């Protein structure tokens, strides 16, 4: 090169360079991989670093782990809820509650006693549902129908006939239960008939366990027309009831008994009894026991 340049030309020393673009991370972290070597030609849209992918994979792994942890927590919650439900059920089973409104009849166990499954603690009765079981022969039960009127007379309340209805008539015969007094009666085949009190609350003196007698119509009267009009008259037919009078009761006591049995008021009973005794000339014998009456009175 010539020391002197032609007129109009100048020279200077320098170094060849190129535009540089520094590629840097936006967030701090450990560099996992560089996807470029020196001399490689890269374009602006081509991925140079795997840092974002690493962060994504890390985050995704964290999400998967969190989901697994959430599933485990939900399973633990479900198990805890099941245990709570079981304990609640056991507590409920251990706590005795009255299933109905009633009166405690018997206390069968005391605190401190060990009871097995099914061990009884109390006997509860429902005073609104009282009934009496009768045991009658087929000749009678064959004429009875559920819903028919009946009466119950308790030994403790002999002057009070309690209204009842037939709620059940057995379809199969059985031997009379052992609580029936006579041996001859126990050897007979009978059908169970249940009489249910229609207004148990009207007679608070009536208590479960009281003995007594139940009365039903045998069918011959029940099947007649206008049977309701016949009920009151039954108590005023002494000749027709001769076989049914109580011999130890007087004539007036028998009449009042049957009048009560079939629902007559005291006033109506007294009026009809007076008319009947006058018509039959039995007024002077009204207080004589029926078993003491004879042809000549």
Which SSEs are present, and which pair or pack?
Elements (H helix, E strand, L loop, with lengths): L50 H44 L8 E5 L14 E4 L5 E6 L1 H4 L7 E6 L6 E9 L4 E2 L7 H4 L2 E9 L14 E5 L10 H8 L16 H11 L4 H14 L18
Antiparallel strand pairs: 1-2, 3-7, 4-5, 4-8, 5-7, 6-7
Description:
The termini are far apart. Among the domains are: 57-86; 126-236, Efflux pump adaptor protein, beta barrel domain (Elongation Factor Tu (Ef-tu), domain 3, Beta Barrel); 239-296, no CATH class. It is rod-shaped. Mean pLDDT is 75; it is low at 221-227 and 229-242. Helix content is 29%, strand content 15%. It is built from six helices and eight strands; from the N terminus they run αβββαβββαββααα. A hairpin with a 6-residue loop joins strand 4 and strand 5. By secondary structure, the chain is α+β, with helices and mostly antiparallel strands. The relative contact order is 0.08. It has helices at residues 51-94, 138-141, 183-186, 227-234, 251-261, 266-279; strands at 103-107, 122-125, 131-136, 149-154, 161-169, 174-175, 189-197, 212-216. The strands form two sheets. Strands 3, 4, 5, 6, 7 and 8 form a six-stranded antiparallel beta sheet that branches. Strands 1-2 form a two-stranded antiparallel ribbon.
Quick summary of this structure?
The protein is α+β, with helices and mostly antiparallel strands. It has helices at residues 51-94, 138-141, 183-186, 227-234, 251-261, 266-279; strands at 103-107, 122-125, 131-136, 149-154, 161-169, 174-175, 189-197, 212-216. Among the domains are: 57-86; 126-236, Beta Barrel (Elongation Factor Tu (Ef-tu), domain 3), CATH 2.40.30.170; 239-296, no CATH class.
